[in-house]
Model the fold of this input.
Amino acid sequence: MPELTRLRSRTSDPAEADALLAASGGRFAFASEPDAGFSFDVDQIVDPSFSVARYSIGGEWETSGEFEDLCIVNVTGGSYDWEIDGVRGTATRAPFLIRPGHDFMCTAQQTDIVNIYLSPTTLRDVARITFGDEHLDVVFDSPSTLGPLHSEYMLTAATVAAEYMDAGTFRHPLVRASLFHTLALAALKCFPLSTDPRERDVTPAGQLSRYRRGVRFIEDHASLPITVLDVAEAAGATLAQLEAAFRTHTSMSARGYLQRVRLSAAHADLAASGSGPGTDLAELAARWGFPDVERFSRRYHDAYGEAPGPTLGR
Done:
């Protein structure tokens, strides 16, 4: 898997801020009065599938421009007003979407921002698997979310992405793949699409076949950075069809089944480690796709009736 790229920088020069956004595929022109206290801090991680960036921008400032990728802007603090194609909005705790080819400008003051960057091509591929339509093109009708609950959902997903950056779990391929899946589906769920994908009917025999193909794919590939999108594609199902198949035959979701298989693999690693207290439980959990070691420990206890520690050295 290609290595991650991380950019950390700070400047008080608007022109240098323009250059830093250019590294994210952005073409912007910042402006700020000399005595307005402008400062620009960026911490960004770039994966081949997506990117997450945290910005802390001080003072009063304004900018205009566009990104090459779809950019979901999540403003967690400060004042931020935007305008896209004549449509205006206030962004604080109300995520919005900057689409390539659409005129964007904003005025802001003392802002903390988490940006999620998604390739339109990659998001289209996710949508085609999700909705089971190989000809589907993703076109968003509006830069605003569908409503307040969708705004909170998107903001929570972006906040989790930023927390993964801080915790260092972003570097683990399984964690990163799961995060990409969450962010891509959040974008498709939270912003209005111009299309109206329809689910196709599935016979009981077809459902069983897709369930078996899904199980086989999970058990063969659980150690790789797969998500339920990959499972759905391998099973020849939409996400809804895959979930229905797994709940019918296992009483759990496809994602739950994938996590159970990975939990079993982590259990086997612990039992075979023989390293006793020296084993880094957080590292092992993240390697198997569990970024939160406390949540991993609870699931482990639920599955095996004990905390992960006693397994060590057996």
Notes: The CA atoms of residues 177 and 225 lie 5 Å apart. The chain is about 45% helix and 25% strand. The radius of gyration is 22 Å.
